[in-house]
Amino acid sequence: MSRLPPLGRTVALAALSCALIATAASASPTLFGPATAPLVAATTGHGASAALPPPGPPGSGDGPVRAFDGYPRLANAVGWASIASWILVYTDPIVLCVREQSGESLSLLFLAIWLTGDITNFLGSIWQGLIPTVIILALYYTVCDVILIFQVFYYRRKRRLHPELYEPLATSDGLNGSGVASLPTPASEQTPLLSAFSAHAPTEPAFSPAVQRARDLLFYGAGIAIIVSAGVIAWFAGKNKNKEGRVVEEWDTSAQIVGWVSAFLYLGSRLPQLALNRKTKCVGLSIFMFLLAVAGNSTYVASILLTSMSPQHLLINAPWLVGSGGTIFLDFIVLGQFAYYAKERRLEAEAAKNGVFAADDDALARREVFEDDDEEA
């Protein structure tokens, strides 16, 4: 936040010299700002020198107050790595909606919660004057939420106007009226927050376990490379960060209220996921999407802490630290659930596979019986 510059004081001796010094002070607040009050020698017309008094109270022309603590260059690099992580998280569902020409894989309830949280996050970070990467990320969140919600309504309207372009929507068993797998069931409050968007589309053939594992490893490696590259590029691009210092934030009650609303919305959006995982055994979750979310939130928190550890900085940034830090804790619980239910998911998958084979055998046996009856007839 900016401060007001010093009020001018009438100095009888060397009026022209004092005017020049005042002009230089307002142009270079870091050199002549209120943090230092050196005695400046002024030369009178008779060659005598006198000491000027220290500057007066702040006025309207000073630049923002800056501090030179923390690791601003590293904080900037980590902040951009966080942005890269969230770009990967949001890109997958956006691309999938376009590929499937449907937004029914998304839950409007959770998107509404996210959008409300992201809007309050963005407004609070702007009002509070937080570090640039936090503001950029909040804006990116909001834009992606709007895109996803737009996709849901756009493709619903397109389906209504051009039903001939689509197959019937899936029923609760994942089959359409003809018994053929179709589009996913429309999302509801029971839909996972981060579902398996990275899996193959419903109309594509499934890959063998070995091929799928290789694809996943390639995808994971590419994601990690993108995140690290973003941080490295930001590190080299921010070589002047240490010299510039950081703008000292000033407490803004309105921004703090909005920031805490955003934090509670973020934390609350994970609670339905934890309850749902107990019923679904984490089936349909994309573990990589959760890992990317953890990476994004971890680097987000790190960028704030690396900027400064001063009590004022931490207190002002508390809503954003609690919102992201608490989400990391809840996401680790989700990852623990994913590991805990792994055995049950495997047994259920094997049972389903055996059931399919048994059904095929029954169908084949019935067909042979009918063929034998026809031959006897």
TrEMBL record:
InterPro entries: LAAT-1, PQ-loop_rpt. Residues 1-27 form the signal peptide. The chain crosses the membrane at residues 77-96, 108-127, 133-155, 217-237, 257-276, 283-306, 318-341. One of its GO terms (molecular function) is basic amino acid transmembrane transporter activity. SMART domains: CTNS. It catalyses: L-histidine(out) + L-arginine(in) = L-histidine(in) + L-arginine(out). One of its GO terms (cellular component) is lytic vacuole membrane. It is found in: Membrane. GO terms for biological process: vacuolar transmembrane transport. Belongs to the laat-1 family. This is BY PROTMAP: gi|472585458|gb|EMS23012.1| Cystinosin/ERS1p repeat protein [Rhodosporidium toruloides NP11] gi|647399429|emb|CDR44193.1| RHTO0S09e01046g2_1 [Rhodosporidium toruloides]. It comes from Rhodotorula toruloides (Yeast).
